[in-house]
Amino acid sequence: MADELELPPEEAEEGAPEWVVTFGDMMSLLLCFFILLLSFSETDAGKYKELAGSLEKAFGVQKVLEVYGKPMGMKMIAREFEQAFVEQASVGPAGGAERRLFQEYARALEGLQKQGILEITEDDEYFIIRLVGQATFASGKASIEPKMLPSLRTIGELLRASEQEIVVAGHTDNIPLKGGPYESNLALSAARAAAVVYFFLEQGFIGPERIATMGYGEHRPIAANDTDANRQKNRRVDIKISLTRKAS
Questions:
Q1: How far apart are CA 79 and CA 12, in angstroms?
Q2: pLDDT tens-digit profile of 34-93?
Q3: Cβ 85 vs Cβ 74: under 8 Å
Q4: Cβ distance 117 to 151 under 8 Å?
Q5: What are the residue boundaries of the structural domains of the chain, listed by start?
Q6: CATH assignment of 96-246?
């Protein structure tokens, strides 16, 4: 019998299989697709601040910009590292004149603040004169306590000196009302805010075009309604002076 022919062994191809290349291309395209989707997403204000703080610590401060208002309508991925985010609005941030005016407010009201009649605070949009509810109104009522009128006149004289828009917002604790002329805490808070606004208007401290009234009831507390002390903090009227908007 003739010897069978011996075939040479097949040589194995070097490198990855061909399907791996196709798979890698597909993964790259998917990654680009999701990055593109992320670039179109809106910025969460809280996450934006955290990210900005982390970048500041990691790379140092490139620019110091005084910004008022939340970063709305911005992209998560910037086209340039130094890109300055500016909210498009019809008005600009509070200028030096307004800042100096608010500092004068704080100094003028320092005595009333020490007496516990009011508090001075500020957020991204407003300089806030916070009237303590217990000192301003009797329980369940919306008539201003007579002893509070001199303090309101002091505040009114300060408001007369600016052109900024003002919102007076009433707040209560979460204890339901029992009897009285008001059916709910929401109605009571609105009535208290309106009483303060009427006082300013009747005394001629401010014109109606500059001021608005709002009532929030128990729905925007600044403390948990779990103790009497915290409930007293929530019973308040906030006189909110806009940092940016002036009366037209």
A1: 47
A2: 787 776 665 555 555 665 665 555 555 445 544 444 444 444 434 433 333 333 333 445
A3: yes
A4: yes
A5: 20-88, 96-246
A6: 3.30.1330.60
